[in-house]
Amino acid sequence: MILLFYLNSKNTSTNIKLWIFLLLTWTNIVQSSLILDEDAPKNGYSGRICGIGDMNKDGYTDIIVQNDDELTIRLQSETGIFSNQTTPKILQIESTKSSCFVGDFNGDTIPDIISVSELDDSIFHVTVFLFNDVNKFNFTVFSLDTLLFDEPIIADVNGDGITDLIGFKSEDYELVCFTGGDKFGVERCTQLFRNDLTNNGNNVNGKGKMRPKKYFPHIFADFDGDMRADFVFGMENESQKLVLEMYVKNEYQNYWILHKNAIAKIPNNYDEKNLAAPVVSDFDADGHLDIAFPVCSDNGCKKIEKFLIWSNKNSSKVSKSELLKEGGEWNYITIDNKESELAVTGKEQAVIFRVGDFNLDGYPDLIAVAKINNGDHPIILENVECNGCENVTRKFEMKTTQRLIEPADMSGGKVMLTGFFDLKEDGNLDILVEYMDKKNQQTKHDFIKCDDKGDTTFLKVQTHTNVCQKDCPGRKARDFGSGIPWHGACVSYSMTDSWGSFKVSKKCQLSQTNQRTLQGPYILFGLGRSPNFIDIIKFDGPFNYKRMVKAKSFELPQIVPNSRIVAVPPRESNNLWYIRLYLTPSRLILQSFIVLAIKYYRSSVEKLFPVYMSYDSLLDCICPSKSENYITILRNRYKVKDKLGKGSFGTVLEVEDIITSTKLAMKIAKKHDDDGRCLVLEKRILTKIRKLNHFPVIYAAGSFKKYNYIIFEKLGKNLQLLMYEKNDKKSFHHCVIAEIGHQLIEALSILHTAGYLHRDIKPDNIMVGLPPNDNKIYLIDFGMGRRFKNFDGTLRINKRTKISFRGTKVFASNWALANYEQKPWDDVNCVLLSLAFMLNGTLPWWGSYCDTRKLVKKKQKYTNMDMFKRFGYNGRRFASYVLNFIHKNEVDYKYMSKCLKNEKETLDRETFEAYWSWDLNWTNNLSNPYENNMIELSKKTLKHVSKKETEKIKL
């Protein structure tokens, strides 16, 4: 059961009574029951995947299966189980390996199937199955007279809402288009394509005759920024070089114009490269679609070295006519596939990668088949942020920790094809796999179910054709729209996420339909871990603009995440867009609405929300001395609990995430003060290195009225406080200090790779995590940070003539105290002096803080190896390296980490953990390892250290 809202373009601004919404949401959750898949076959489903689509118009994607020369329709139930619906009817085809396309080819709004079979090299035969109903699946069948050079594509060419077929003739490679309708297969729409696609003429791609690129998944999506799909065909010139040609619709005449210069020539350095079939999506989530070509390092495409990307980023900056002359731009995205070899088997795997936002973070991922552990298995290449990448911000990476739990029959067989598939239409992408079982060598298919994506949210949209809006054939009375997905309908959204960042993305429905790309009949956006409302969703489609002069895109404001939207465009110029919204009320969304209800009901009582008052009022309201029990809520989610202290830049408060009940920390400062400006920089740095080790996870950031704030992971105590709280000597065990240094060097490696310096590392800014992360060291307070690298990874050229000191004087280098531009070595030097402070309980120049000149002289005198006598051999090697390699931009992080790690491993694991717990996580239950003289050396130490040195270590 799901929540349903009916909207049209006249009354979308009407307010829905919030209490009714909450009541319905609660009722929905109470009535929901756990769905089990006990009826799913244990050893997969038999048959080869021919195609996918919603054959009975129930909103669930079905599968067309091929067994030898017969097709079977398997319908998906709401529990994600597939059942055979066409036996004993026989859907006969002419090849054992065909591709199937689902669309409405005769205009009766009943889904039909086209099967394309390769009879001979470059000779493809098309069989059409026109169905009369969605229950018994009675059909008529016929074949097209024209033989094709390759698999065709399907799209709505003339904008009438009926599916058309576009391909190339086998004998002369000319483009041919068959018009959907009563005369499908006879009436043609070829005349709507102006200019000869095969005549290269005198454009940027050279002269001569061209022909279609074999096994190319041609594209129907928006690349000129008008939200209306364009055709991009893959062609080959006489030199057999790939050429991309774009057709754009003339809105006044309703025909397609070939723009020879719309897509720039592929860079010359890729002429000799083998480019695999492209995939289309908005990979960097900037609102512009990208075409991504895998660049193969071998002829068989078993190794991919990068992705060559074409996109047109200027669609919002120049006129459409100018844009179609500029040619867009080519870049590349790197790939880290951990040296895995792809499993590619000729033309059957013409499409190597398939695209979908698997982790729902807003950045589309890729899936392919690779050779892993002597077998062929699905792998997911995650779209992750790339620090220092040239001209792009993303890269594809195969996570080494990734585990896909395959069913036993699939795991023992050979995987041949894989793609994303939304089982149960719940917005969480699962994995569809075609494989050959080991026992019978039979082709089968099954699913890897991936239901749990954490707290991530999504937006799922399906735009129906506009042939009918209500009471359509094959639909129940309560159903809405034709139930036929409109090829080329585009959707975009924009919103502000929980970190205050603006997000925008765009996709077009069924943008690639041939070569078994297996795109679902919907658009799915991942929204990440954000319960925020989506600001604007924009819809448009490939209308017949000659008949519908006033055809306009439609904008839908303020939509809650985890929504599934069905959109039906207008049939006539004076008709409206109709929107139906189905909400999947997860616990996260429900709790968000409860908070909104409280705010809605009590918004007139200002004192209940002091976070909207002044900064002083906010601090007053959480002060323990106050008797009033105020409610303080920020962003409808974070409740202020107590004051934790004052950081370097701003006051730190404890807050509670009222949705997850997680205790977090919030730093807040006035916008226009130095503290507030430093908080903006800290947010930028934490966002850049978000989710990486040794840095607090940032949950939200932004500004309200006069104040900036950051909400991040709550940590334990800082190291200086821990030293002062110790009842014994004010220092830590040297192996504990070595491990602290090891983790700090790891943190600096990450921070410096991201292009930033910290410039204020000291025990005050080094913290221990809370359980279960109490073995982890965190670096905090980035308000004094500075970018020292450009976005392309090159060193930033410093043009500043006046440089003010940044940092804490007793831990800073003399280079920094002399007001020179700091470098990575200065951060490492701060780590070294912090370790010296922890080794000795103080520093020789501690009392000279106020006199900089005297401080510098004392540092010059006492900064030597005598400060590190408590360290063993490896710890002293680290100290010597740092002291002797001064003012370097590039430091050897691996060498330093190795030295400190070896120092830590002087003790065996159990002994080390005892000292770590006593020094950093002290509780009454612990016994004091210092009093017990608990010294157990590791086997490594005993093997390599002399007996005399061993006794020295024990002392």
From TrEMBL:
Cellular component terms (Gene Ontology): plasma membrane
Signal peptide: 1-32
Compartment list: Membrane
Database matches in SUPFAM superfamilies: Integrin alpha N-terminal domain, Protein kinase-like (PK-like)
A GO MF term: ATP binding
PROSITE patterns membership: PROTEIN_KINASE_ATP, PROTEIN_KINASE_DOM, PROTEIN_KINASE_ST
Record: residues binding ATP: 671
Record key words, sorted: ATP-binding, Glycoprotein, Membrane, Nucleotide-binding, Signal, Transmembrane, Transmembrane helix
InterPro entries, sorted: C2_TIP, FG-GAP, Integrin_alpha_N, Kinase-like_dom_sf, Prot_kinase_dom, Protein_kinase_ATP_BS, Ser/Thr_kinase_AS, Tip
Principal location listed in the UniProt entry: membrane
Membrane topology: Single-pass type I membrane protein
Membrane among keywords: yes
Location of the Protein kinase domain: 638-923
Highest taxon in the source lineage: Eukaryota
PANTHER family linked: T-CELL IMMUNOMODULATORY PROTEIN, T-CELL IMMUNOMODULATORY PROTEIN HOMOLOG
Similarity remark: Belongs to the TIP family.
Name this protein carries in UniProt: DNA-directed RNA polymerase I subunit RPA49
Organism: Strongyloides stercoralis
Lineage: Eukaryota, Metazoa, Ecdysozoa, Nematoda, Chromadorea
